[in-house]
Amino acid sequence: MKNTLATLTLLALSDLAYGISGQVTDQSGVPIKGATVETAGRTLQVLTDSHGRFSLDLESDAVSELHIKAPGYSHRTLHLDSIESPALHITLRPSAIEQIDVTATPLHTSTMESAQPVTVLAGNTLRRKQADTLGETLKNEVGVHPTYFGPVASSPVIRGLSGPRVLITQNSLDTSDASRVGPDHVVTSEASTAEQIEILRGPATLFYGSGAIGGVVNVVDDRVPSSSDATGAFQLGHSSVNNENDVSLTYTGGVEQIALHFDGFSRDGDDYEIPGAAELNADHSHTEEEQEHEAEGVLENSAAESNGFNIGASWLLENGYIGLAYGRLERLNGIPGHSHASGDDDAHEHSEEVDTVSDLKQDRWQLISELSLDTALLRGVNTRIGYTDYEHIEIENNQQGTLFQNETLQTRVDLLLQEIAGWRGALSVEGKTTDFSAIGEEAFTPPNQTDSFAVALMQEKHTGDFLWQLGARVEKVTIEADSIKWHETHHDAEEESAEQEHTLLDFDTLEFTPYSLSAGTVWNFAENYNAGVSLTYAQRAPSAAELFSYGPHIGTGSYEVGALFDIHASENRHFHYRNDVEEEVSNNFDLTLRKHSGDIGWVINLFYNKISNFYYQRDTGFTSEDLADHAHETHQESETVGDEHSHDHGALPIYVFEQADTTLYGLETQLAWRLSTPLTLTLWGDSIRGKLDDGGNLPRIPPVRLGFQLQYESNGWETGVNLSHYFEQDKVAELETTTDSYTLLGAEVRYTFSHNLGDLTVFLQGENLTNEEARVHSSFLKDRAPLPGRNFHLGLRGEF
């Protein structure tokens, strides 16, 4: 009887040109205005009116699911083959945990409906947490820590992994900067103009390739608009800790079939105030004369100024849109701890410390198209093309030092497949070419080019209380690097000089074919509860920096040597070129338990990641002064390389990229408890353990931490207090120092004035209110750059 009623219902809907209508309410029967009702796997969606009602007109009856969502409520999936009445009445349950859809994948994914853990920052939550850098914006998200290269540069560390293992994307396209090469390089994504930021924890290689073996951070903005509805926002702010002023503006609008977008920001600040001295144990590491010149209470050379804008336009079609955007970013900032002797190299008593600044410029073009289709094979095509021209110059004593350049062209096409036997998914084809170069005395990698081409297939299916997700991806990666050269200067009797170039080493072209497989399920095992399980086998091709590095990386205060070199620890220490590196292989298991409805919501994640041939930087215990000087020898036969750099950087510790079998595992927890209608308590914490299978620990693994937040919202007022405690990290790698525990206290108050044109919010935020000295264990600069001291951020934000 039930099947008969369902069949009659579907036939009735088909007779009405397959129109679907109904009402969305809460559990008390109160209509929910502004709820989103969308068809599974399609771009067709509508919002409910003031009575909670909606109507969808479909072109065919090939729709099996509806997805319904609203702010403050748990998402719901409705299977049309199970409905018993043509008049749909959909009830949503309130949720203490915010639930947001993810745009980073071609499959339907939300923070509570994914086999792998996902975090999304959007709306007021994103506005409250936004900072000058992406790493600092995300540093309090579960499972995410910052690299923290002082306040001027910071990238996300996901579950202990960073660098080339964590992909940073803008609207699902690579940011294509130099931040994956070194932690002293800025991520060129701006949180102040973003719509939302999505974090995919664990391997996301199926969607983004081997560079996402540790996770993905996708910054979503509206630079390529998909609607001509007029919306906008602006923000003005001032921070006391560095006397920084910031302003940002976004606007999207248009007429009929043309949508236009503009956003821009500007930020200008001085050196940061810190508790005490920047140098850890400074009294023991400097002479009395040097201590006199060491600034107390300020992190020298940490000032920064930046500005940028994006302009875009789209042609809106009946079945989607196609648009183009151009963006420009400029940033000038100091590099804390990056200084060296200048003057007479043979007479250090006459030398002085010279600060270095980074001058960054990036031009970025994006073409984005999303089109719905109704063919026998395809239900849609999503196309993304990005071209990025990036450079930053390190300037020393007002003279150009090292020039870093990165030019990237990337194309990605997702073919959204029609549902077959209940399976719905996408075929993704992607190609990318990256030209990277570092030119100058501090260039620690030779110019190189990386080409990749990939094909991936992702599928999902609902069966009863289970959502099944499967995927596979294969890539072809080719890496080429220029030869390492040195220049010899000859002087004749008349004191004229001539320079002669010599080739020390020619690199072979390297080719890799990494592939990835994934299987996962989400099980709604009880009302308001679900469990997610995923298994991922993923391979990663090494990055050019991990392979070819050979030279001083002054930003991190180290001498970096790539995995293509073996150290010969003889009397005349040198490195020998080899060519037997392998892909990194990850076997990752994720288990997630969630309670997603009611006054108490929680998420528990357990992960276990077994990685073979893991690339990591080992401290050899040697310094650059221990290397034999082969600058005036020919090495064509022995293929050895010596220290060819003449700039005086002092004795830099030598870090070598090596491969080893490793294991990372951990726990991530979050609990939200709505104590009353205006008052919510949030508790969270995470723990990461990284070990070498042959014994010892991985370097720079973040410590255990616990967090607390109490938030009150009522009648336009928002107030909150938060506390986070970082435990001592004493599980350290060989020659790595421990990091003390610390506790950070913050608070905020906001008031929103609502009017006919929109909302106007005045806010005051306080950070590190106890002015505690805190050092980030995952930072290369932890002994030279503590976190900023007490800060107050006063601002005004308007939305219309």
Q: The biggest beta sheet, please?
A: 22 strands, antiparallel, barrel
* CATH architecture classification of the largest domain: Beta Barrel
Mean pLDDT, to the nearest integer, reads 86
State the share of residues found in helices, binned by percent: under 10%
Total count of strands: 46
Tally the helices: 7
Assign an overall shape: globular
- Given as residue ranges, the uncertain stretches (5+ residues, pLDDT < 50) are 1-17, 289-293, 340-351, 630-646
Give me the oligomer status: single chain
Terminal residue distance: 51 Å
CATH superfamily of the largest domain: TonB-dependent receptor, beta-barrel domain
Q: Tell me the strand percentage band.
A: over 45%
CATH topology of the largest domain: Maltoporin, Chain A
Q: How would you explain this protein's 3D organization?
A:
The protein is mostly beta strands and 800 residues long. It folds into 2 domains: 2-91, Carboxypeptidase-like, regulatory domain (Immunoglobulin-like), CATH 2.60.40.1120; 118-799, TonB-dependent receptor, beta-barrel domain (Maltoporin, Chain A, Beta Barrel). Helices cover 6% and strands 55% of the residues. It has 7 helices and 46 strands. The protein has a 22-stranded antiparallel beta barrel. Strands 8-13-14-11-12 form a 5-stranded mixed β-sheet. It is globular and about 85 Å long. It starts with a helix and ends with a strand.
